[in-house]
């Protein structure tokens, strides 16, 4: 029975953690783009985004990560023989990348608060795609375990990454053109 409790809370932790990561980097986009606003709007927006980022990271995202990791340890403790599975080692390698991404976001958050981050909204949009790719790979490994159809999966992941990158670029171009159109109509 413990296995099912660990698994349920592991899944809940994953949902909370990823929701936090996705929204956190979206806040970074808005934070970076606030620099384009005139004063006092710029200062007001940056202050508000800083508060939102800290609360999200400390109250939702990091606890979601902690629940995910602790429940994963609980799951492994109920079936220690799973540690011999090659697919789990690969999955854990991707989880380590996800943990690094999480703490890197914390670093960026602190840099934004100090006014030391030079990233653009466009760069943050690209960064926001990383957890999507990690989520897809981790879930596929968890579901398929040792029987992951690598050929099809590899191409699907490549297609997903390419389509996300293309979508980011198209959206950025549309926003830039809309902004130029708005500027020229006002000028």
TrEMBL record:
Cofactor: binding details: Binds 1 heme b (iron(II)-protoporphyrin IX) group per subunit.
EC number: 1.3.99.-
InterPro entries cross-referenced by the UniProt entry: HemJ-like
Signal peptide: none
Main subcellular location of this protein, as a coarse class: membrane
Gene Ontology terms describing biological process: protoporphyrinogen IX biosynthetic process
Chain segments annotated as transmembrane: 6-29, 56-76, 88-105, 126-146, 152-172
Cofactor(s) the record lists: heme b
Pfam annotation, one family: UPF0093
Biological or metabolic pathway of the protein: Porphyrin-containing compound metabolism; protoporphyrin-IX biosynthesis; protoporphyrin-IX from protoporphyrinogen-IX: step 1/1
Localization in the cell: Cell membrane
Record keywords, A-Z: Cell membrane, Heme, Iron, Membrane, Metal-binding, Oxidoreductase, Transmembrane, Transmembrane helix
GO molecular function: metal ion binding; protoporphyrinogen oxidase activity
Annotated Gene Ontology cellular component terms: plasma membrane
Presence of the UniProt keyword Cell membrane in the record: yes
Enzyme class of the recorded protein, top EC level: oxidoreductase
List of residues binding heme: 10, 91
Family annotation (PANTHER family): PROTOPORPHYRINOGEN IX OXIDASE, UPF0093 MEMBRANE PROTEIN SLR1790
Subunit structure: Homodimer.
Record function comment: Catalyzes the oxidation of protoporphyrinogen IX to protoporphyrin IX.
The family this protein is said to belong to: Belongs to the HemJ family.
Protein name: Protoporphyrinogen IX oxidase
